[in-house]
Amino acid sequence: MKIEVDFQPIGKHVKIDSGATILEAAQEAGVGISAICGGAGSCGACRVHLDDQEQVSKPNETETDVLDAEDLTEGIRLACQTKIYGDTRVEVPPESMTATQRTQVEGDEIDFEFEPPVEIKDLSLSKARSTDLQADFERLSAVVSENGRPAMQCRRLNIIKQIPGLLRQNKWKIRAGLRGDELVSVSAPGAPVLGLAVDIGTTKVAGYLVDMVSGTTLAMKGIMNPQIAYGEDVMARITYSTMHENGLNILQTAIVDALNELARDLCIAAGSNGEEETPDYQPSQIVESVMVGNTAMHHLLLGLPVEQLGLSPYVAAVTSPLDIKADEINLAFSAGATIHLLANIAGFVGADHLSMLLATNTHKKKGVVVSLDIGTNTEITLIANGRMISCSTASGPAFEGAHIRHGMRAAEGAIERVQIVDNKLAFQTIGNVAPIGLCGSGILDVIAQLKLCGAMNDKGALDEKHPLIRRGEKLLEALIATGEITGTDHDIVLSRGDINEVQMAKGAMRAGIELLLDAAGATAGDIDEFIIAGAFGSYISVEAAVAIGMFPDIPLDRFRQVGNAAGIGAKQALLSTTRRAEAAGIGKQVEYLELTVSEKFQEEFLKAMYM
Amino acid sequence: MKIEVDFQPIGKHVKIDSGATILEAAQEAGVGISAICGGAGSCGACRVHLDDQEQVSKPNETETDVLDAEDLTEGIRLACQTKIYGDTRVEVPPESMTATQRTQVEGDEIDFEFEPPVEIKDLSLSKARSTDLQADFERLSAVVSENGRPAMQCRRLNIIKQIPGLLRQNKWKIRAGLRGDELVSVSAPGAPVLGLAVDIGTTKVAGYLVDMVSGTTLAMKGIMNPQIAYGEDVMARITYSTMHENGLNILQTAIVDALNELARDLCIAAGSNGEEETPDYQPSQIVESVMVGNTAMHHLLLGLPVEQLGLSPYVAAVTSPLDIKADEINLAFSAGATIHLLANIAGFVGADHLSMLLATNTHKKKGVVVSLDIGTNTEITLIANGRMISCSTASGPAFEGAHIRHGMRAAEGAIERVQIVDNKLAFQTIGNVAPIGLCGSGILDVIAQLKLCGAMNDKGALDEKHPLIRRGEKLLEALIATGEITGTDHDIVLSRGDINEVQMAKGAMRAGIELLLDAAGATAGDIDEFIIAGAFGSYISVEAAVAIGMFPDIPLDRFRQVGNAAGIGAKQALLSTTRRAEAAGIGKQVEYLELTVSEKFQEEFLKAMYM
Prior knowledge:
The structure is a homodimer.
Chain A: E1 2-8, E2 12-17, H1 22-29, E3 47-50, H2 61-66, H3 69-73, E4 76-78, E5 88-91, H4 99-102, E6 119-124, H5 136-145, H6 157-160, H7 162-169, E7 173-179, E8 182-187, E9 194-200, E10 204-211, E11 217-224, H8 234-243, H9 247-270, E12 286-293, H10 295-302, E13 322-325, E14 338-341, H11 351-359, E15 368-373, E16 378-384, E17 387-393, E18 414-421, E19 424-429, E20 437-438, H12 440-452, E21 469-471, E22 476-481, H13 483-486, E23 492-495, H14 496-519, E24 527-533, H15 535-539, H16 542-547, E25 559-561, H17 565-575, H18 577-589, E26 591-592, H19 599-608
Parallel strand pairs in A: 1-5, 9-12, 12-14, 15-24, 17-26, 18-20, 24-25
Antiparallel strand pairs in A: 1-2, 3-4, 3-5, 6-7, 7-8, 9-10, 10-11, 13-14, 15-16, 16-17, 18-19, 21-22, 22-23
């Protein structure tokens, strides 16, 4: 008997034989669930949530060993142990997914009201005749104003141009999109009206296509930021755009082309038939978009100069929220499509961080709350004692796998989870293929495991006598995978040098947290909630991060990993004018703490290097 | 002894020997003053005005014969008779200039206050530093808002892009252009800020470059409308744009390219050195422009569809005043330059007519006033009994020389003035060269003279027995110039068929006037002022027009020929927000009378065909 399994929030379905495990169903459906131990039930990485357990096996001994009573009560099960006997819905939390599928689009959603910035109206006009010679635009305007609206404005000739044809082709009926008093779109009655939310990361770009009539999400997709070809990190891209003739234009064109392609792909994915030739949706139906990114990504998207952003004192060209028109940057959306850009907080605390604060409702929290986004720069915001203060710390690219001997990005073949199983370092790779290197979460796991088993001391020094440690060419190192396992002639190791890179990264991050707490007159112990956003941050083991002192040692249940909150925030600002106004409020309220001018920073940084 | 003569308003100067006549000085300066009789003093066409007559000869017998006492008291003299003995300023009224120089740029100016829509501010900002990290745009905005202005908006990224560079290159000083709360331009402190007014006629285009800081006119120039290559008149162009793939785009590109070139030429002409390579002014300094044209020219400039404008009921796509951005139609002005388009009144009464009503202050007149623009369509507005009513009559192209056997446009070699001198038809050509054909004013003069000397009756029939009339190949005709004079083997004649074309044209015009009077409950005798605008209308002999019944038979001093009032109105709307608001008011107030649905029109038209 075939039964149907529905994986959420990723939205994939599969029909499978009754009696299969959830993990098997997931593999069949192409849903990447973590399984470090290979399905033995020992790693506990494949935790999933079931609302309804009537059609599945009862928890077995392995599960009752690994999961605590509270987990079981809440409906948490191990995917590798649970067998399914009837149609079942499985919720896969972000931390249980492999990196490729957590990618960068999912995030915790919160409830908010659908209050779109563009109001859609299907209107019926009287036909022009010799005795009623009103011009087409004014004829439409008159009907719009009938309900006491102010006189209609229009900022794009390309909209006005469409009106005569649409009216005469559709028997004087027309669908109009109104953004306040501005006419931003016209189309045939009943035609789709779309919105697009985008989080433009330095590495990855996440897009969400929504129906602006119903507010439903039609499709989501993550792609790489093609600007990587011109520089891995923000500083490299600023340098490129400054040093190369036409460099700024090249970088802008790269991201704009990618966004146009993303919009096309999302429209095809959202269509009922998924056919490229006869799409149900088209990018030219997108009337509103919200885009967020760090300040450099924001400037490069808009073609704003970045030279001054790369030189002390690192000043942005503009930080306020902006409404621009899609055609100003060659986005092939509807003629009057507005691109709303949330406010940047400072040169190195961008709109993506603000969007994350919005999505997590950080600005509404009582008590002491830390919200952070981990990246080459880690942006941190603290709420405490009525203040909201942000800073940016140069945490470096260690967690992106750079400057680490066998480091790599979170891609297929990356070791993403490491755990000591039977006194050996067991691991799981993205895609369950032979290991190629270590991605950030794997690196963090290794170091935490080395610390916990006593192979590494609090200065980061490795113990040569420990069975997991060996002497490499120059430095001591921990062996993670032998050449035999990798299928190449080299082992995968983590060396003392690599550990030093991580110490710098986590030291900067922790020092930033401490300086914010100090500025607000609070201490780590006061923290009520610690929110971690972003692809990397959502996937790391919080225990590991606490173990090495990257995060303060507070109860684990105060941490919350929220996935791509920046993307979710963008989507909320797209669908709700109230949420958008809140975002603007955060931009005005938040204070910025410049760490480079703080004498205390160096001191805290050195202290925070300790594991 | 050399003396200097200053010709106004054309703005040309010349040094000439003392004792020369004003006509000789004008010929030396290249100022085309009419002289039908060749300087004999008999035609009275070379009337000029002198404010100060101290340095010129006293009126001679010829002048006292031709001019009346009132003329002489007001300072009117004949250019061919008046000798100059010292530096003198000569005002040449439009009706005394040859067609090429009256062209299409001059017009009567009226006083109004300089209240530009863009306010120019030279600002000094504090430098960004680590302890003052405000972004550049917000830093500028803060200084602008210091004087209680609302928060500054900006609608063009291309403006924001310039701010970081300008601030750092000019020691944090900057010149900002503010249009209400919108930042529309940034430049180095003290850089020129320009405005451009344009009247886009179906045949000719007139441009005026002004300094938006002082309000002075820097240069003016007339060019041909290059769309002529795609159709001589409005209907031909509508047909072209509808029938040819990409036709609308071709017509739009033609006029836009011409306007860009006109702007460049005006900037070069306005510069102190007139050098193309190092211009003092550049089109990229134009921040505001007002453009007027008939409804079809308006639509073709903006790329708006014109198909519905060419089909009954002839409906415009839009009639309201519009603010668009120059880059929307590829005008290479400043990044945020606004193009303001005055309102159209109806499909065949365009913004150029509204602009003419503004320039002549028609809307402020008391009593009964007729204002009209003669062209292929003649637009007429009547003020009477508290109403302002407009109509358009299809007067046809006869006055542009079309459908007339030896007709031609007002270009070099065109016979522009005809008068019976010594029982013969004497004439003057544009440029004083051998005659090629007859332009509109010449045609009108011939017919009026034929009527006055009895060679033509009130039905337009020619009298074969009259010495000026001969039998042509098919029809009777009046000989104007023999082949000997033209230097070719053909004579220039005006035939009975040509007269019929003029009867249709003037009949339509007069019928329009009568229908407006009827609609407002007035009669021709009530008319207090009769304003005639446009190149052709300003140059015709009003006596001739009255003689053939084109205009009602009212005292000649009630007629006023105002030159290119449409262009002057555009310039006023460019320089004065009050004038611009008045223009919008006219657009709202004016009623449109559709003649094609009037039963009375045909009746009046037939009646008005009589000479």
